[in-house]
Amino acid sequence: MAALPEGTPCWADAMFPDLEAAKSFYSELMGWTYDEGSEEFGNYTQARSDGRLVAAVVPQMPGMESPAAWNLYFASPDAAATAAKIRENGGTLLMEPMQVGEFGTMATAQDPSGVSFSVWQPGAHEGFEKTGEPGSFAWAEITTRDAAKADAFFTATFPFEVQKMKHEVVDFHLWNIGGRPVAGRMKMTDDFPPDVPPHVNVYFAVADCDAAIATVNKLGGQVHFGPMDSPFGRFATVADQQGAVFSVIDLQTTKGEMPEMT
What we know:
There is one protein chain. A hairpin with a 5-residue loop joins strand 14 and strand 15. Helices cover 16% and strands 40% of the residues. The chain has an eight-stranded mixed beta sheet, covered by helices on one side. The protein has an eight-stranded mixed beta sheet with strand order 10-11-12-9-13-16-15-14, covered by helices on one side. It is globular and about 50 Å long. By secondary structure, the protein is of the alpha+beta class.
């Protein structure tokens, strides 16, 4: 697999208080199977769909009691250089670049608007082996209240080409690399509860959005938004039974015309 262009979402993982509960939840919802976790790497447990790597779940480390949340990694040819750009553009390094065995080098940061994310310089682990199909990563949106800060930071840190959606109410930017959409930026409105922090909204593809919602509810999760039809697919934003928020999208069920972009 060729190295992904800089700035392309390349991996997602989440840390949970109860790892076994998380594995059970996503196994039933997404059909994931799991590799054996390695004690050397904190029982980091990789998930597979159709035998291909799609994400990872990991138990919370002692003393880390932050809420469960999905984390997105952006590809980088040089994690140290990207870390320097993060600092230069007003971001905060939460974890300096660190080599993870033979797998690659990671760094974790926060943009000036409060969105946390990670950077991945691939070694033996190149990231997602399956995307855009049921059970795998489909899309991601930087979701923030301070869109201006996020826009300035991310477009200076990564080589994104920006398009703005023409809409009277929704403030949404599309980020392209080489003319191909890779992620988006959504400005949070007053519809978002005030206790919802800025975050990356990770979308996972499912075969049927409504069936996925039913499974989320059955397993003790919550539906925060949707389901909603769109030209991109039928989607909903949900939380698992430990509170980690993400979205599910049926990419085959589309409705309406594509929005005009500038």
